[in-house]
Structure prediction request, 224 residues.
Amino acid sequence: MTTETRRPALTRDRVLAGAIELVDEIGIDAFTIRRLATALDVKPMTIYHYVASKDEIIGGMVDVVFSEIELPADGLDWQTAIRRRCRSAREVLRRHPWAPPLMESRSNPGPATLRHHDAVVGCFRRGGLSLELTAHAYATIDSYVYGFALEEAHLPGGGSGEIVELAEDMLAESLAGYPHLAEFTTEHVLQPGYRFGNSFEFGLELIIDGLARAASSFSTNRLP
Prediction:
């Protein structure tokens, strides 16, 4: 006697989870409803019972990505809370390298996206940053985090060992006429322990320290 294995019931959440898993593997440009249906072992039209369009799926995927990022904790000072949130965002975006260009592109953001933005704005405001400085701070922080994640995702090996191999090839083949780049490659990139990702913390500290100094010179306009 055999027991038939049943597929889990299809739901909107399962569609989005399957879409994220697929796009993590193949990239957003190769994503189609037909490929998603194949991955979920359903017919393409079945998916439309749960989501109205491909654009709605992408919007839902972005909302799920936002839900994975740690929210700034209320009990921490704003600098510590934002550091933790930015580190979490970087790790989430390393899992989903397709996401950075889409994070702020949705015209109808989902609840997790709105909750995340509200929490970050609230963190800056509780820290005494004015509305103007909050706008500058949020734009600067996320430009850095998204940009770093995007660059890291497109480096060979995500900026790990393979970038050293690439640097060795460049040094051997094409850097003879570029003394500053050759020095940088030889004396820094090819040294033990080099990782592109090490620069993330350095840049994050520069930004947060600069915002803290700016906060002392801007009018505060605190929340009551």
